[in-house]
Amino acid sequence: MSPSSSSSAFGEALRRLYFVRFAFAIVWAALLVPNSDTDGPLLTTLLVVYPLFDAAAVLWQLHARPEARRPEVTEWINVAVSALVAVALGVASTMSIAAALGVWGAWAIGSGIPQLVTAVRNRRSGGQVPQMLSGGISVLAGSAFLAQGLDGADDIAGVAGYAVLGGVFFLVSAIHLSIVRPRKR
Fold first, then answer.
1. 105 and 151 in contact (C-beta within 8 Å)?
2. Transmembrane segments in this chain: where (predicted)?
3. I want to staple 153 with a disulfide (CB 3.0 to 4.6 A). Which of 3, 14, 144, 148 is the partner?
4. Alpha-carbon distance 148 to 154, whole Å?
């Protein structure tokens, strides 16, 4: 496979992944909002599933990349952090909503930075500007969530909005790839 066709295949794989990530974010947020102020097994499950899905999506992206021999440090950091956060959210959500919100905030900061770096590096695949913005916004939103958690917040509904906004960025990227990729063939 030529470099241009492997780049095109990777762009198509990203497009599909971004549509899936958008749909997941919308469904997850719709399930979270009515349960955002009640701790219990459903909230814990929702909070754990989100970072696990994120880790799985990044792993899938790693395996879809045509230059698999190139080190993908930022993606592996994202996978490891997301897996650890799933465990931390599981524990924190049994303690308090504020603790879970603080963990979520720290995760948003920690995953936003590698997302930004990865999007900058993948810019040649197209559709990465929304991902760059999403990474930057993750750092800012994460700081706000962390502060709210430290302040003792008793509702975690704000993370649903954060997930939806992230999903919209994935949708914009997918649409961009749908428009740009056919022209490049």
1. no
2. 18-36, 42-64, 76-95, 156-180
3. 148
4. 9
